[in-house]
Write a structure and sequence with these properties.
By secondary structure, the protein is an alpha+beta fold. It contains two helices and two strands; from the N terminus they run ββαα. The chain has a two-stranded antiparallel ribbon.
Amino acid sequence: MTAISGIGQAFPSGGTCPLDFSVALPWGTVSTDFLCTTFENVRGVLEAVFLALWVLIGYRVVAEA
């Protein structure tokens, strides 16, 4: 387990939202980052769901061997 204990540092996080955009209109500029905000709000749920999925897939692979 010590070999994978620092794996989180290998994948940096943070930065800017690649999905935000701005539209220039005659009366001003409209910008949105709706997708990034939404994904940030459901990140914990998605992490839990996919972790459970990978655990089940791993268990099935080992159980079938």
